[in-house]
Prior knowledge:
This protein has 4 helices and 21 strands.
Amino acid sequence: MDLSKECFWSVSFIIFLIGSSDLVDYFNSMKKNVKKPRRFALLMVLVAGILIPHLEGCSSDKAEKQGEAKTSGGELPVTAVVAKTSMTANGIAVVGSLLANEEVELVAEIAGKVKGIYFKEGARVKKGQLLLKVDDADLQAELMRAQFEQKLLSEKLERQRILLERESVSREAFDQVQTDYNMLQADIELLEVRISRTEIRAPFDGVMGFRYVSEGSYVQASTRIATIVDNSVLKFECNIAEKYALNNLIGKEIQFQAAGSDKTYSAKVYAVNPSSDATTHTVALRARFQNPDYELSAGMFAAGHLIFDGRNEFIAIPTEAVVPEMDGKRLWVLRNGKATLVPVETESRDEKDVEVVSGIAVGDTVLTGGLMQLREGMAVKVTVKR
C-alpha cells in the first residue's frame, strides 16, 4: 500500500514508542535461547490494533482528497430556467405612491396673537369653516373710524352735487370731494381685506392634521398652523417605460394593492406627463380613484398593473438571476455547456420576476442558482427548474 509521508511517519513513531523496549528484550532472549512467544504475540496484536486504524485513516484522507480534486476539476452543479415568452392580460407591472386629491399647509397671513382655535386634530371640516382667528381689535377700530369719515364725506359729496347742479361750485371742487370719497372707500376695502386675513378658513372639505400653534401664541406671517388633506379621492402616481407612452393611456385602468391591504382597488388614468425623463427614460402618469370611506391614506406605497387592450408578451426572468454591476446588469447564460456572462437590459419588475428587453432570446438557458461560484467559461451541470 502506498502510504503518504504523514501516515508513514506517524505509524512508525507509534511503533517505535510502544515496541522498542519489548523488541530489544525479545532479541536478547533469542540470544540466551529463552522463548517468550506469548509476550511477542501480544505485542504484535497491540501493534496491529494501532496500525490498521491509521492505515484506514490515511486511505480515507487520500480518497477524500481525490474526491475534492475531482469535484474542483469537474462540472459545477447549478440551477437554471429556460427563457420563454410570458403573456398576461394584466398589462405591465407598476409601482408608485398615493397622493391626496387636495393637500394644503395652512399658514398665518398676518402677524398677531391667536385669539381662538376652532378645529380638532384629525377632525373632518367643511369648506369655509372657521379654523383659527387672530386678534383684529386694532383693525376693527381703524375700520370704524374710516366708516365715520366715509359717512361725512358721503354727505359732503351729496351737497357738492346739488351745488354743482346749481352752478354754485366749480367742477374742480366737486371732483376733489369725489376723489377724497373714493380714496376713503378704497381704504375701507383694504381694512376689510386685512381683517379677513385674520381668519383662517377651510379651503375645501377635508381632514385636519396636527396643529402647530396654541391659543394665545403670537404668530408671524407664514407661521405654520396646520395641514388639511382631502382623501375622499386619491391619485395613484407611477412611472412607466417611455415606449408604453405611445399607447392611448387616458382612461386605462390600473388595478393595484396598497401596503398592508389585500384588497384590490381600481383607478382610471386621467393625466400623463407630456415629457419623458431624460435620465430614466420613463413617463409619469396619474390615475384617480374614489376613496369615500377613507380606507387608504395619502403617501401610501402601492403596486399593481396597468391594463392595456389585448394581451402583452415579454420575457420574465427570476430576479435572483440578475447580476448588478457598475456598468449595467448581466445574466449567466449557458453556452455550449459553459457559463457565459451576458449584458442585458431590464424594465419593469415585481417581487419575483424582472422583464428582460434585450440581451437574451426565447429558449436561452439562464442560470439562477449557484452563481457565487461561477466563473466565465466554467463547465456546469444544469438542473432546469420547471
